[in-house]
């Protein structure tokens, strides 16, 4: 069980580093919006959060979803195994089920006050770029791991599907947070099958009704199906304000203040 997880981690790390560098270069060459705060300061915080999240995952979450999926598959547990549902169709179904699970999790984190206190750290970024896709509180990482483990156990999702989903989730999170300008015609076509930067940027608007839209990370279909899709921000992509209106001071956006954010009451909980 350790060996597949080890190889999966190596693959995920290689994809993460390669795509991070590629998107960072692309958004430097074709930025969608001018930055409003120091990129160096933001990257120092965001990459520090990545390092901390990785450490927490290693120490507190020894059973990775991929390893659990491999073990369950060998035991014949889960709905897919009970129905003898396997092969490429099962892999595709597993990826879509995990994606729907993350969509539902994202909506839950916005609607439940105690979970919003944890998730709001992700929304405090005053600019969006490729590094924003990694800005999640360690507590949220732990909870998300648990939710994925439950989904894998219930459905008996194949380890190949879990690995592909994890790679897609990391890749799409970096892509749709990127400060990358795409031709409008290309964006219109792409957002039929994948969440684009312009689509996801609406979700980071300071306007609450826009924050509570476009919850998808990988595919846009769940937002369209469940009525949470919003095509454009009210003030346009160049005029919109990103972040939370109550949390805009640079002195409060360092690594330690952000880690304390779920446990303080300075900001009213979003209803």
Describe this structure in words.
With 271 residues, this protein is an all-alpha fold. It has one domain (2-263). It contains 14 helices and no strands. The longest helix has 28 residues, at 2-29. The N and C termini lie far apart (43 Å). 39% of the residues are buried.
Topology readout:
Blueprint: H1 2-29, H2 39-60, H3 65-75, H4 79-82, H5 87-111, H6 113-119, H7 138-155, H8 159-177, H9 184-190, H10 197-201, H11 208-211, H12 221-225, H13 236-239, H14 255-260
Helix pairs in contact: 1-8, 3-7, 3-8, 5-6, 5-7, 5-8
Features:
globular, mainly alpha, 0% strand, 14 helices, 271 residues
In short:
Helices cover 61% and strands 0% of the residues.
The secondary-structure class comes to mainly alpha
Helix content: 55-70%
Total beta strand runs: 0
Q: How is the main sheet built? A: none
Share of residues in strands: under 5%
**What gap, in angstroms, lies between the N and C termini?**
43 Å
Shape: globular
Average pLDDT, to the nearest integer?
91
Count of domain modules: 1
The parts where pLDDT drops under 50 for at least 5 residues are none
Structural Rg: 18 Å
**N-to-C series of helices and strands:** HHHHHHHHHHHHHH
Continuous helix count: 14
């Amino acid at each position: 069980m350790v060996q597949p997880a080890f190889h999966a981690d190596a693959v995920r790390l290689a994809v993460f580093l390669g795509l991070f560098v590629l998107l960072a270069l692309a958004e430097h060459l074709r930025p969608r919006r001018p930055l409003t705060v120091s990129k160096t300061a933001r990257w120092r915080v965001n990459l520090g959060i990545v390092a901390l999240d990785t450490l927490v995952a290693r120490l507190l979450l020894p059973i990775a979803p991929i390893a659990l999926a491999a073990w369950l598959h060998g035991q014949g547990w889960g709905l897919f195994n009970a129905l003898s549902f396997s092969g490429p169709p099962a892999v595709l179904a597993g990826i879509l089920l995990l994606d729907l699970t993350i969509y539902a999790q994202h909506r839950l984190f916005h609607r439940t006050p105690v979970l919003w206190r944890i998730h709001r750290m992700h929304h405090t970024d005053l600019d969006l770029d490729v590094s924003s896709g990694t800005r999640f509180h360690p507590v949220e990482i732990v909870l998300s791991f648990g939710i994925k483990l439950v989904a894998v156990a219930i459905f008996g999702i194949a380890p190949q599907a879990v690995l592909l989903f994890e790679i897609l989730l990391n890749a799409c999170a970096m892509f749709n947070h990127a400060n990358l300008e795409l031709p409008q015609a290309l964006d219109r076509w792409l957002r039929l099958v994948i969440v684009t930067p312009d689509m996801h940027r609406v979700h980071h608007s300071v306007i609450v009704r826009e924050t509570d839209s476009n919850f998808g990370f990988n595919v846009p279909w769940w937002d369209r199906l469940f009525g949470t899709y919003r095509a454009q921000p009210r003030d346009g992509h160049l005029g919109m304000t990103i972040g939370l209106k109550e949390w805009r001071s640079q002195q409060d956006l360092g690594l330690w203040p952000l880690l304390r954010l779920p446990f303080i009451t300075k900001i009213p909980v979003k209803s």
